[in-house]
Write a structure and sequence with these properties.
The structure holds two protein chains of two kinds. Chain A is an alpha+beta fold. Helix content of chain A is 24%, strand content 15%. Chain B contains 16 helices and 16 strands. In chain B, strands 1, 2, 3, 15 and 16 form a five-stranded mixed β-sheet that branches. In chain B, a hairpin with an 8-residue loop joins β9 and β10. The chains are: A alpha+beta, B alpha+beta. At the A-B interface, loops of A face α2 of B. Bound molecules: iron/sulfur cluster (SF4) and FE2/S2 (inorganic) cluster.
Chain lengths: 241, 473
């Protein structure tokens, strides 16, 4: 967008091919529009982008560092590379690090077969985790009447934090601690069941890409998610339909 | 010099074990111990997990009989929710449980034990296996493989996969039966019966040559325990617990599974990770009892289906009162396969099995839940306690092989005393020691809630602890 709010049309190259894009688009949006595959975890259509998971890294000509496609805006003449050996290596490494941080045992997980982390790992050909697992022991928060939070499976994408804040407007969720100590919390680190601000809408559960948030009573592999509601909801809110 | 014989690893059983035989200077066997040398601790790792995860989590205890753990675990969870599972949900679980018994019994009888029966206890260990059977009597091996395949396919048709299906859930099962799968299963039942008929025709004359083994293969008086239904018939999934003494008197009956710990005690021995389980009123180790096919047929009034009951008459004629030699576990297994095929047929022929209402949904309503079912190897008990949010606080599992532990130890000693020359142990003698363990078809993965394939080692040990000879495979 220009300073006076006008949207321009840019031409850029993705993997050597010319494509056109609106100036208010991210590299990720343009790549997806043109059917280039870029793995993402923290990004979700309808929520703000924070560039946390680093899976969507792409190469941009003239830049020494890799850039996250979800937070990088397009520019005129940009040359983007979405796939090469280096990117594949980094993406795999990123996924392996995510796996090593918590306890992602698919076979006994509520989200088995419905998990974005599992899907991407299969797609990117992860068959080993080359770093040692940390196996932290987090207590499961099952105090909420309808939902369960299992930190052991959380990948800290903060989709729950953003959907609750940006869409539901309740802002129940936050992240406490730093680095490896970080974890999502409800209110001021109170049991979820005692969080008065929670409207029990279940949006957080439906956007969670893994088995960290699930509906109570679900058995292994039964935690199907519905995150398709988000783009409609955001669009409708903008248009005040 | 006195010595100890160790069999380590024990072969053709499920898991890892070793046997130690204590011998004195004259070659007299003083004692024998069956050690289970692996530990996993599922009871511990389930703490803090939501109870709804338990069936699938506990199924991971064993790759041979995940379904049995699914059943006991799901039943414990039903009790935590305090719900009544819809009849069709129950019946479909029963079908899967029986499919599991069929495939596991096939594995035990044909793959693991038929080599001893067909090729002889003294045959060369290199050929004394299912491949040796396939070479000498291909139709027997083929039947075994086919039977196992049918059982496994039934599990897959019901649960979507053969190993660790997540179809069995707290409150029932998570998908109704389809007409196509119903027909596919029903079609196989006649073949199961034919295979068992052929196996029985082969087994009856063969077993005549094993009178010496029958006499000493864990052939001693013990109690027997298992589930029976309200008519006192064999039961694999529901019902109440019954204890019978060695003279055939029913000593405790109608025990609600939730009261198991009034009757059943567990003791830890330093030589094994496998706990020894005993009948409390008779104390330890006097309360020795056996579970599994032999026990189930001994304690029940009948099988409750025509073909199995016909064969049960033959089983009863082996001796007056309960059949005491563990050698007859083999026979009992064949009868049970027949019984399961007939029962599955009954359930699937009834249109009620197509009822789409197969699951009860509820929050936890009780903090304590016990689930009991009959696994192929015997009674399986899962007992959970949860907090007010449904997270597991405590779990206790009693596995079929645990109930049989005391009897297996005594059986090893009995066989060793009869066959073994303590100063000069020979292969065929050692194989008989393994074979007596095999009659129980122990699953050590389950019993210590640990995984693996079971190799065996026999160790000969002097009273001073010196290992004089180790024979391993
Ligand atoms: S709970 Fe789920 S949505 Fe929230 S940060 Fe963790 S993985 Fe992301
Ligand atoms: S999707 Fe771009 S950093 Fe996570």
């Amino acid at each position: 967008m220009t300073a006076n709010g006008q949207i321009k049309i840019f031409t850029l190259k993705i993997d050597g091919k010319d494509v056109s894009a609106r100036s208010d688009q991210t590299v990720l949006q343009v790549c997806r529009e043109n059917e280039y595959f870029i793995p993402t975890l923290c990004h979700l259509e309808g929520l703000s982008n924070i560039g946390a998971c680093r899976l969507c890294m792409v190469e941009v000509a003239g830049q020494r560092k890799l850039l996250p496609a979800c937070t990088t805006m397009v520019s005129e003449g940009m040359e983007v590379t979405t796939t090469n050996d280096k990117l594949a290596h980094y993406r795999k490494m990123t996924l392996e690090l995510i796996f090593s941080e918590r306890n992602h045992t698919c076979s006994v997980c509520v989200s088995n077969n419905h998990c974005e982390l599992q899907y991407l790992s299969q797609k990117l050909g992860i068959n080993h985790i080359r770093v040692p697992y940390r196996f932290p022991k987090f207590a499961v928060d099952a105090s909420h009447p309808y939902f369960i939070l299992d930190h052991n499976r959380c990948i800290l994408c903060t989709r729950c934090v953003r959907v609750c804040d940006e869409i539901e407007g309740a802002h129940v969720w936050d992240v406490s601690g730093r680095g490896i100590q970080a974890k999502v919390i409800t209110e001021l680190n109170q049991p979820w069941g005692s969080a008065d601000t929670c409207t029990q809408c279940g949006k957080c559960v439906n956007v969670c890409p893994v088995g960290a948030l699930s509906e109570k009573g679900r058995s292994v592999a039964e935690n199907t998610k519905r995150s398709g509601f988000l783009p409609y909801l955001t669009a409708r809110r903008k248009e005040k339909i | 010099m006195p010595k100890t014989i160790t069999i380590d690893p024990v072969t053709r059983i499920e898991g890892h074990a070793k046997i130690t035989i204590y011998v004195d200077d004259n070659g007299t066997i003083n004692d024998a111990q069956f050690h289970v040398t692996q530990l996993r601790g599922f009871e511990k790792l389930s703490e803090g997990r939501p109870f709804t995860e338990m069936p699938s989590l506990m199924a991971r205890i064993c790759g041979i009989c995940p379904v049995s753990h699914l059943m006991a675990s799901a039943k414990a969870c039903d009790n935590l929710m305090a719900v009544k599972v819809p009849v069709t949900g129950h019946n479909l679980r029963k079908v899967m449980n029986m499919a599991q018994i069929i495939q596991s019994h096939a594995l035990s009888f044909f793959h693991l034990s038929s080599p001893d029966l067909l090729l002889g206890m003294d045959a060369d260990p290199a050929i004394r296996n299912i491949l040796g059977v396939a070479a000498k009597r291909p139709e027997l091996a083929k039947d075994g493989i086919r039977l196992r395949q049918i059982g496994q396919q039934m599990i897959e048709l019901l649960g979507g996969k053969r190993i660790h299906p997540s179809w069995v859930v707290s409150g029932g099962v998570n998908a109704a039966l389809t007409a196509e799968h119903r027909a596919a299963m029903l079609k196989e039942m006649p073949e199961i019966k034919e295979i068992v008929r052929r196996a029985l025709n082969w087994y009856h004359p063969v077993v005549k040559h094993y009178q010496e083994e029958i006499a000493v293969f864990a052939n001693f008086p013990t109690l027997f325990m298992g589930l029976v239904n309200k008519n006192g018939e064999v039961e694999y999934y529901d019902g109440t617990l019954r204890f019978m003494d060695s003279a055939g008197n029913i000593v405790s009956d109608g025990i609600d599974p939730s009261e198991y710990d009034t009757w059943i005690g567990e003791k830890v021995e330093s030589y094994s990770y496998l706990k020894s389980v005993f009948y409390k009123p008779m104390g330890y180790p006097g309360g020795i009892y056996r579970v599994g096919p032999l026990a189930r047929l001994n304690i029940a009034s009948k099988c409750g289906t025509p073909l199995a009951d016909e064969e049960l008459a033959g089983f009863r004629s082996i001796q007056k009162g309960p059949v005491s030699s563990s050698f007859h576990y083999h026979y009992a297994r064949l009868i049970e396969i027949l019984n399961c095929a007939e029962r599955v047929e009954d359930i699937l022929k009834d249109d009620e099995c197509m009822n789409p209402h197969v699951r009860a949904i509820a929050n936890p309503n009780s903090f304590d839940g016990v689930g009991v079912s009959e696994a192929p190897r015997g009674t399986l008990i899962h007992h959970y306690r949860i907090d007010e949010n449904g997270l597991i606080k405590w779990a206790n599992l009693i596995i079929a092989t645990g109930h049989n532990n005391l009897a297996m130890n005594r059986g090893v000693l009995q066989v060793a005393r009869h066959y073994l020359d303590g100063l000069n142990p020979k292969e065929g003698m050692l194989n008989r020691i393994e074979a007596v363990i095999r009659t129980f078809d122990p699953c050590l993965s389950c019993s210590t809630h640990a995984a693996g394939q079971m190799p065996m080692q026999i160790e000969i040990q002097a009273p001073n602890g010196e290992i004089l000879k180790t024979i391993s495979r």
